Amino acid sequence: MEQQAYSIGVKGKKWGDAEKAQWFNAQSIKRSYQDEVVSKILALKDRFDVEQYGALSYDAKRYPLFAVKTHNWDANKATILVTGGVHGYETSGVQGAIRFIETQAANYSDKFNILVTPCISPWGYETINRWNPKAIDPNRSFYADSSAEESAALIKLLAELGVEMFAHIDLHETTDTDNSEFRPALAARDAVEHTNWNIPDGFYLVGDTINPQDEFQTAMIKSVEQVTHIAPADDSGKLIGVDLAQFGVINYATKALGLCAGVTDAKYVTTTEVYPDSPLSDDENCIVAQVAAITGGLDYLLTL
To answer: Which intervals hold domain Peptidase M14 (predicted)?
Structure first.
């Protein structure tokens, strides 16, 4: 696939403030964070500790940030972090995190402390965007003094919590709009060429290159394949241009790339990727797959 031209900017020239403003002005609200996310989170208050850990400056009233914790945290229990909606447009990451809390989190609360941030990028959720309003990708911005306030808010929450994470599961999607919109926009913004346009048909995981924890990843894949299909490798034996570590799993340098999966020093880390545009899947199936990934990982950790 040839790299597509993009409607904003000049080919070969990085965007400045004017181009970023033009991009922002082209965005619009397409769905409701309050109705689809906040209402579900607040409904959990009778069973979990629901805390607001910040709000986005773009519209603090419209975009509060919430964390959900299991009751009765115990320093003797390992702590699990589940994050969703780092890329707001990746719907099942958000809804999968909420569904996990609604249906499964309590089943593990006697063994683990569990912290879930279901929607890190609510503006991105409403506008169905990968970036924030400043044309910054929050999932490349998990570093000290982050330029993305979505990322900075989570970093601050974790620092104030002061708890060592045992595992971190970050919920994502790979969609057809990655090719039709988001990669062309990225190429235009940064004045770069993209050569890989393969979108895997199915679920896969992204582990940490430095700390892959293969058995943990395997357990999650085995759990997910009970509810949906796992992405096969492409003709070159890769997924999104990266060599397979095992069936359905590739590895990234999570900390070096500023990924959410690298935000803690957790021993067990993964990023889920579902493909909602597959003819073999649908929105509900993607949500169920996210939950199966989390429970598969937690069930494995219980065996250690």
So the answer is: 29-298
Give me the phi and psi of 299, to 5 degrees please.
Answer: -60, -40
**Structure tokens belonging to residue 59:** 């519209």
Q: Using N-to-C axis directions, what is the helix angle for 283-302 and 91-103, rounded to 10°? A: 50
Catalytic residue among 36, 160, 273, 284: 273
Residue 251 near residue 206 (C-beta atoms within 8 A) = yes
Tell the burial category of 50 from Cβ atoms under 10 Å away from its Cβ (0-12, 13-18, 19+).
middle
Q: What is the mean pLDDT of the chain?
A: 96
E runs forming strands in the chain? 49-55, 64-69, 78-84, 112-117, 165-173, 204-208, 238-239, 242-243, 249-252, 268-274
Question: For 77-130, how does the pLDDT look when each residue is reduced to its tens digit (9 = 90+)?
Answer: 999 999 999 999 999 999 999 999 999 999 999 999 999 999 999 999 999 999
Token duo for residue 252 = 């990234």
Look at residue 96 in the predicted model and tell me its pLDDT. 98
- 235-288, pLDDT tens digit by residue? 999 999 999 999 999 999 999 999 999 999 999 999 999 999 999 999 999 999
Answer yes or no: 126 catalytic. Answer: no
Do the bridges between strand 165-173 and strand 268-274 make them parallel or antiparallel, or are there none, so unpaired? parallel
Which tokens go with 296? 């598969």
Cα angle 25, 190, 241 (rounded to 5 degrees) comes to: 115
Structure tokens at 170: 């970050």
CA distance 18 to 29: 21
How many helices and strands, by DSSP H and E, does the chain display? Answer: 11, 10
Model-level pTM greater than 0.85? yes
- 176: alpha, beta or left, given left = phi > 0 and alpha = psi -120 to 50? alpha
Sheet harboring 112-117: ordered strands across?
49-55, 64-69, 112-117, 78-84, 165-173, 268-274, 204-208, 249-252
The two three-digit tokens of residue 96, written as one number: 């999968």
